[in-house]
Amino acid sequence: MDVVRIQGGRALHGSITVSGAKNACLPIFAAALLTEETVTIDNVPELSDVHTMGKLLTHLGADVKQLDPHTWQITAKKITHFAPHKLVSQMRASVVLLGPLLGRLRKAVVSQPGGCNFGPRPIDLHIKGFKSMGCTVRMKRGYLHLDGSNMKGAELFLGGRQGSTVTGTANMVMAATLVRGITRIDSSACEPEIEDLCRLLVAMGARIDGIGTHVLTIEGVDRLHGARHRVIPDRIEAGTWIVAAAITRGDITVHGANSKHLSAFLDKLDESGLSVLTEGPETLRINATNLKLRPVDIITLPHPGYPTDLQAQMCALLAVTPGLSIITERIYPNRFMYVSELQRMGADIAIEGPSAIIKGRSRLSGAMVMASDLRASAALILAGLHANDETWVLQKLLVLWDFHSRAHAGQRATLSRW
Ligand code: EPU
Measured from the CB, is residue 331 less than 6 Å from ligand 1? Predict the structure, then answer.
């Protein structure tokens, strides 16, 4: 979908079940490469990234089947080690193929993933980790060539300037499951998605200690076997629905949300005056019909801190919360590309270094805006739900150009064509 058109100004009421977590699912698909046996994955979100990962695994030789919209089965009996640019360039998360390929085959040739719409996305920590395990790494014509014939368990430190690395941790854990000896990863990421990956690996026969903490210890085994696994609910999607209820002053029940995965986010909402009720083990109720919000200061941090993937959505909410709020982005200091689009809707936000200074307004107005990444799209849609008139959120420059040129020619733009 390239355009989302929103007639805002209406409160959202109803209930919704969140999908499985995208960022858990992608490394979990890659983990299926670690065994010749079948891995069945339930609660898979229906997303283009998932299909891209399916295509990558098929290219590597795996048999990939979508049994129903949310259940996939992967059997990687015989695989190769080459992931081409054509597929890798479609999705940055393809980097998580490195770990399983090294674990299973001791070699990998994978196109180097580039940056993204919110700045450079280095993989130096992944490379440092693999090198510590005895791997040699070469770059040739945009491809990473990794040779792991001498790999063995090692002590790694994955801390960087912005904390640990989520996909880097996934890569090290997956490789280490099939590497002789004990690997200890200090400063590993402890995001719920990493915990979920580790739970699958344990079900496949891996030996992992410290799951959910910043120190993971993995004892390599000779082989892993098949397993069946249910992906955790998407905490970022759940958080986005919560903001949707708040920004429209609606009343929404969100099913399939784990509040433990959202503590820092829920704590900030509580501070701003919105209480989210837990109505069951995985059910949250947000009644914002009489909500009066207060401004808050937020700093994004690695888990269990406030998640960067809920930064843009919260900025949209704070843009319509009277008073002065500040959001400081510590994971991706440039992840404010969407702010200029919120400004086009009337938001009063200034960027000072890694911080957004937000002077809340009582109302935004609809506009045609351009989304730079997934979470930016969510923030702009949320702002559009709040605005009284119509908002168009466009995904591609090409579409914007097309709209302008046709509008200029006096034609009426239609959505159906896109
Ligand atoms: N970093 C380095 N060197 C590295 C790796 C990372 O300096 O080798 C830096 C990054 O530049 C960033 C920070 O460390 O400043 C954290 O990066 P991380 O590697 O943890 O990010 P990631 O694994 O590439 C995952 C999610 C992102 C999410 C981040 C942070 C997946 C597929 N992606 O990315 O999700 O923002 O962790 O939580 O799991 C999204 O879903 O919209 C999204 C961008």
Answer: yes
| Ligand 1 atom at shortest distance from the alpha carbon of 125 | 8
pLDDT at 399: 42
Q: How far apart (Å, rounded) are the C-alpha atoms in residues 94 and 107?
A: 16
3-state class (DSSP) for residue 403 = helix
Tell me the β-bridge partners of 176: none
* pLDDT for residue 396: 60
User: Fold match between 3-18+233-408 and 22-230?
Assistant: yes
Degrees (nearest 5) of the Cα angle 265, 271, 277? 65
Active site amino acids:
116
What is the per-residue pLDDT for 412?
A: 35
Does 234 sit in the ligand 1 pocket, CB within 6 Å? Answer: no
Q: Could you tell me the strand order of the sheet in which 107-111 lies?
A: 82-83, 107-111, 143-147, 136-140
Within 13 Å and on the Cβ side, how many CA atoms surround 279?
12
Distance between CA 293 and CA 247 in Å, rounded? Answer: 10
Q: What is the atom index within ligand 1 of the atom nearest the CA of 120?
A: 11
| Every domain of the chain and the residues it spans | 3-18+233-408, 22-230
- Does residue 97 contact residue 59 with C-beta atoms inside 8 Å? no
The second-level CATH assignment, the architecture, of 3-18+233-408 is: Alpha-beta prism (3.65)
Contact 387, 366 (CB under 8 A): yes
Q: At what angle do helices 22-31 and 98-105 cross, to 10 degrees?
A: 20
Q: Which H or E run includes 394?
A: strand 390-394
Give the pLDDT of residue 10: 95
Tell me the mean pLDDT per 10 residues along the chain, length 418: 90 96 98 98 96 97 97 98 93 95 97 76 94 96 96 96 95 98 98 98 98 98 98 97 97 95 97 93 94 97 98 98 97 94 98 97 94 94 96 70 40 30
CATH topology of domain 22-230: UDP-n-acetylglucosamine1-carboxyvinyl-transferase; Chain (3.65.10)
Establish whether residue 196 lines the binding site of ligand 1, counting it when its CB lies within 6 angstroms of any ligand atom: no
Sign of the Cα pseudo-torsion (184, 333, 375, 288, in order): positive
